[in-house]
Design goal:
The chain is mostly helical. The chain contains 13 helices and 6 strands. It has helices at residues 3-13, 55-70, 83-92, 104-123, 134-140, 195-198, 203-210, 215-223, 225-234, 249-266, 269-272, 284-289, 297-300; strands at 45-47, 175-176, 187-188, 316-317, 326-327, 341-343. A hairpin with an 8-residue loop joins strand 4 (316-317) and strand 5 (326-327). The longest helix has 20 residues, at 104-123.
Length: 344
Amino acid sequence: MSSTSLKFLVYGCAAAMAVASSLPSSNSNATRAAVKEFPECTSLYQRKSWTAMTNTEKKAYIDAELCLMNKAPKLGVAGSQNLWDDMMYAHIYQANVIHNDGPFLPWHRLYMRVHEVYLQTECGYGGGQPYWNELEDAEAGFLNQSTVFDAETGFGSFKNGDNGCVADGPFVNLTMHLNQTSSDANFCLTRDLDQDSFYQANSTYVNECMVIDTYVDSWNCWGTAPHLAGHMGVGGTMLDVVSSPGDPLFFLHHTNLDRLWWEWQSVNLTARLNEIGGPVVASDAFLTMSNLDYPGADLLDYNGENGGNVTTMAHNLWTAGLLPNVTIADLMDIRGPISCAIYV
C-alpha cells in the first residue's frame, strides 16, 4: 500500500468511536439559539494569501488565534475550556454530516466565516480570514520550506519535541480538551509532514476539478485531492477527520479550498450560485471506514431536507449555536451578507 493510500485510511479512520454518542449533548439540538449574531456586512473583508500579508498583519492574526484559545467559552459544552474548544466542538459533534457529502463545501464555507467573525468580534482582529495557497507550495517543491511553518511569523514548525507536541512557534503550549471520544481529552498539537501527499495540491489535481461542469459531479473531486492534500501533507492533528480544526492551519487550509470553490463558481455565476447537490449523508462505506455512526434525529430532523438524501438550497447548516443557522442558499455568494468577503 502506498504512503498516500495509508494516510488516507488514517485520515478516514481517525474517528475511532461514534461521535454523537460520546460527546456532551447539551447543544445537540440543531434548533438551539445562537450565542452571537452575524455582524452587519458594511464592506467586504479581503481574504489574502498568507504570503501576501505583512509580518504585522500575520502577527495580528496569530494574536487573535491565541486570544480565542484563552477566552472563556460560550456554548456551555461540558469540558470546553475556551472559545477554541467551542470552535472545535461545532466540527466534532457533526463530523458524520459534513464530510464526503453535498453539504461539505457549504458547511465549511460557513465554518470559515464563523471563525472569522469570532476573531473579529471577540479578539479585535481587523482583517479577513487568510488562506494558504497550497498550490504554490506544492509546485515550489519542499513543503518543509513553506513560510506557514515559520516559528516567528507563522504557525510553528512541523518538528515535534520529545513529548510528541510541536516544538516551537506560537502554539507550542496549545492544549485541546475535546475530541471524538472524550470531553476531557487534554491533547497537544502535532504535525508529521508528508511531501508526497501534499503534491496533490498542485495544479494538475486542481485543474481536474476546475473543468468539471456541475456541482453534482465536482463536489467529490474537491473533497479528495485538493482537500486531502492539506490534511495528509501536514499530518498529525490535521489527519484526524473529527478534531483537525485543533490545528490553526486547518482554517487557512479550508479557506483555500473555499477560495478554489469560489473560483470554480465564478466561471459561471448565473448557474453556479444556484447549483447544489450530492447526498445529505455520506455513503455507508465512508461512515464505516471512518468509524462514524449514521447521524441521528438530533441532526437530520433539522436539516431542512424532510428526510431526503439529496442536498438542496434549503439545507440547514448548524454551527452549534456559535452563530445562527443559515441555509446553503444564504451563503452561495461569498460577497453576500453572511460571508461578506472577497478573495484577493
